[in-house]
Specification:
Structural class of chain A: alpha+beta
Number of strands of chain B: 4
Number of helices of chain A: 6
Strand order of the largest sheet of chain A: 5-7-6
Distance between the termini of chain B: 28 Å
Shape of chain A: extended
Number of domains of chain A: 2
Distance between the termini of chain A: 74 Å
Largest sheet of chain A: 3 strands, antiparallel
Strand content of chain B: under 5%
Order of helices and strands of chain A: HHEEEEHEHHEEH
Radius of gyration of chain A: 23 Å
Oligomer: heterodimer
Number of helices of chain B: 19
Shape of chain B: globular
Number of strands of chain A: 7
Radius of gyration of chain B: 23 Å
Mean pLDDT of chain B: 96
Structural class of chain B: mainly alpha
Helix content of chain A: 40-55%
Largest interface: A-B, 104 and 130 residues
Strand order of the largest sheet of chain B: 1-2
Helix content of chain B: 55-70%
Order of helices and strands of chain B: HHHHHHHEEHHHHHHHEEHHHHH
């Protein structure tokens, strides 16, 4: 048995260096040449300033923008570092709400959000993704129904014909991948960027 | 439930089945020491490692030596990982300036990655430096997977050999698995994932100014290289806290599909390796068929439960299923399927928050783990776990007809049965024992994120996941406390090694036996009767053991949910 000690030390160190340094550094090197944009985080840069990532949702509150889904992410409380405060779309600390189907807190939150959205648009049914939190708290997408639901509000805030806004949503709707994978979706940041280009 | 949803499930199953034989054939050749396509490229590195370690690759080991070598290797791995976490503040590749990880959390995390569990009582992006993520965690993702595969090959040799004293050489199996199987697959898959949008950089977090003028700090890092092995090695530990729900760990529906295929690929292929090594591929197919039946049944229940939504959603007029905790790009079906895949295998990556699943939708992942993760299962661990169930099934079948049971030409006798029972019993001991302690220990019981039966499910899920070496969570539980860190660490160690050591004892004992030629009285183990019996034994053993606990958690919660009771 004692003769197994030498290989235990050698293999622990050698395989650690191979799989823990050589492999990830090689992938980093190759990726930076072959897919430099994705490797850095699919960043969107305007006028030399990073305004976000195509893959990461942002917190939108203004009536002039389409809103993403509710986000459960938090940040350290500036007043007391041992506590946290809500900080939607905190891309340095992803998390979900983790509320179960019999949670009173979840039921109350859903009720409040549905009420608020019905006040904004009384005609269309409220899309479920617009009141449920995502798993990551960083979901960049909403369903096409959730985008169309907000078209009226955005059009009014920007003094645009609603039809133009709806056309923009259609233009930014991505279908299922390869025709059958996942769900149709609208990237909220891309849609809002296009809105800003239309009416700065 | 929709047609296009079922199509996604069917395509997933077809891809896994299509990979089973080619990958199984390749791995069989690798572990038999035959020349493979990568041999000219990697053989010099392999030989160099043996020379450095003072290994004679032709010299095989007795099962005890094999097991001791494996354990010694783990001691080395533990020391490296624990030290890296404690010292990360003084080491390079730490652009975010992460400070030392607390001792109890370091212990839990080191055990977690060593045992292929990847339970995480921390958020990756807010706790670990890039050096720990790479040299600590990515490295253990590879080696815990390679260890599991090596051990399962050793057990298969036990069945395949007759009158042998040895079951292979641990160092050789470990090296071949890492070099010829895991590394090449992961290099290709990691680059595919970067193409889909997963970051791979050593640069610091990105500071962005959002359209509304707010500051957003976007965590990045060497993510793709870790995600590739976390899936193929059924490790499941996320680079980020939200794991595969995070857009940077799973950016598209296509990356999602192939990550699920990656979780099952090696485990399914190992059933074929088993068939090939014992000289009859149909033996492997029979095991895979039993797994497939259990998998499809679980998948259908979770898909149905999540697509049905909850009474709370219905009362507010919200249609489209339970989207709480799920991502839009995956939707209901790809989230439900992922949850079943990740718990059927011992992966534990999640692309939706299991804590927010409906009561029955969340019960299937629990059951998958409590059955011992033998539905494909963890790489290696799934096969040796399943073979232990096969031993018990053959024993039950033997009792029915009053004949000494045989499997793959080997007599199953008292020693094998004792070892199999030991392996089976450690699961309920750890899961039910620790859950019982936690619910009566006030600080532990207070850590739940939900009240009522769902809170109980969170604790039950935590110990189920850790004992079964899964790593997924009902993440509302605030488990980063000394009690949970230490008790969970013990559950993970027992759940891993008290299955491994009996499995190796079975391997040694079987390898030493003479082969029994099949006769008219031999129970055929390639047909429907065997598959049905095996499924029955798995469900009865698991069902009898865990039904009372499930009744207190998800079952009660489902009834409460239907009665509109909130907590």
């Amino acid at each position: 048995m004692l003769r197994e000690i030498r290989p235990a030390i050698v293999f622990a160190i050698a395989l650690a260096l191979l799989t823990g340094l050589a492999y990830p550094l090689a992938i980093t090197g190759i990726a930076s040449v072959v897919f430099p944009d994705q490797a850095q985080g699919s960043l969107i840069v305007r006028n030399g300033q990073v305004i976000g990532s195509r893959l990461i949702g942002q917190n939108f509150t203004s009536a002039r923008y389409f809103h993403g889904r509710p986000s459960a992410t938090t940040a350290a409380d500036p007043a007391d570092a041992t506590k946290t405060v809500p900080a939607p779309y905190n891309a340095a600390s992803s998390m979900g709400a983790n509320l179960g189907p019999t949670s009173k807190a979840l039921a109350e939150r859903l009720q409040a959000d549905v009420g608020r959205l019905k006040a904004e648009n009384a005609t269309d049914p409220v899309p479920v993704d617009l009141v449920t939190t995502s798993g990551s708290g960083l979901d960049p997408d909403i369903s096409p129904a959730a985008a169309f639901f907000q078209a009226q509000r955005v059009a009014k805030a920007r003094q645009l014909p609603e039809a133009r806004v709806r056309a923009l949503v259609t233009e930014h709707t991505a279908g299922r991948m390869l025709g059958f994978l996942g769900e149709p979706r609208v990237n909220v940041l891309a849609l809002n960027l296009a809105l800003d280009q239309m009416t700065p | 439930m929709t047609l296009i949803g079922w199509l996604q499930i069917a395509v997933f199953c077809a891809l896994v089945l299509a990979l089973t034989r080619p990958l199984g054939g390749y791995m069989t050749r690798v572990f038999n020491g035959e020349r493979t396509v990568l041999f000219p490229l990697l053989r010099p590195l392999e030989s160099a490692l043996y020379r450095l370690g003072g290994i004679d690759e032709k010299r095989e080991q007795h099962w005890l030596t094999y097991t001791v070598a494996m354990l010694l290797f783990h001691v080395g791995g533990f020391v490296i990982l624990y030290a890296l976490m404690r010292l990360q503040a003084f080491l390079p590749f730490n652009p975010a300036g992460q400070t030392a990880v607390a001792p109890d959390l370091s212990f839990n995390t080191a055990v977690s990655f060593l045992t292929n569990t990847n339970w995480q009582n921390y958020g990756g992006e807010s706790t670990m430096s890039y050096l720990v993520q790479m040299l600590g965690l990515t490295h253990q993702n590879f080696l815990s997977a390679a260890t599991g595969i090596a051990l399962s090959i050793a057990l298969v040799r036990g069945f395949a050999r007759a009158s042998f004293k040895t079951i292979g050489n641990f160092w050789v199996d470990l090296t071949r698995c890492t070099l010829y199987v895991l590394l090449p697959i992961c290099i290709v898959f990691a680059l595919f994932l970067v193409w889909q949008g997963i970051p791979q950089t050593l640069g610091p977090s990105v500071e962005a100014t959002t359209l509304e003028g707010a500051k957003q700090t976007i965590a990045v890092g060497p993510v793709a290289s870790q995600v590739a092995i976390k899936m193929f090695g059924t490790n499941g530990g996320g680079f980020f806290n939200a794991n595969a729900a995070h857009p940077f760990e799973n950016p598209t529906a296509l990356s999602n599909l192939l990550q699920m295929v990656a979780i099952f690929a090696i485990g399914a292929a190992l059933t074929n390796v088993f068939g090939r090594m014992v000289g009859n591929e149909r033996q492997g197919f029979a095991i895979l068929a039993a797994m497939a039946v259990l998998f499809v049944a679980g998948g259908a229940v979770t898909y149905w439960a999540e697509a049905s939504g909850t009474p709370v959603l219905h009362s507010l007029g919200l249609a489209g299923g339970n989207m709480e905790g799920k991502e839009v790009r995956f939707g209901i079906v790809a989230s439900a399927l992922f949850a079943v895949v990740t718990t059927a295998a011992s992966c534990g990556a999640v692309n939706a928050m299991h804590d927010a699943f409906t009561a029955l939708g969340g019960m299937i992942p629990l059951i998958n783990m409590q059955l011992g993760e033998i539905i494909v299962g963890g790489v290696g661990a799934g096969l040796y776990g399943m073979l232990i169930f096969v031993v018990i099934t053959m024993f039950v079948a033997g009792l029915m007809v009053g004949r000494t049971p045989e499997y793959a030409g080997k007599k199953i006798e008292a020693k094998e049965m004792k070892m199999a029972m030991l392996a089976i019993l450690c699961l309920p001991l750890m899961i039910l024992g620790w859950t019982a302690i936690a619910v009566v220990f006030p600080p532990a019981a207070a850590a739940t994120g939900n009240a009522g039966p769902h809170g109980f499910s969170e604790i039950l899920y935590a110990y189920t996941s850790q004992t079964a070496n899964n790593g997924s969570a009902f993440a509302g539980l605030s488990a980063n406390t000394p009690f949970y860190n230490l008790s969970g660490g013990i559950a993970m160690l027992v759940g891993r090694f008290f299955v491994i050591i009996p499995a190796m004892a079975i391997a040694g004992s079987l390898a030493a036996k003479k082969a029994v030629p099949a006769s008219a009285g031999t129970f055929p183990t390639t047909g429907g009767l065997f598959i049905g019996l095996l499924i029955g034994v798995i469900l009865i053993v698991g069902g009898l053991t865990f039904f009372p606990a499930l009744a207190l958690g998800p079952v009660v919660e489902h009834l409460a949910m239907q009665a509109n009771t909130l907590f």
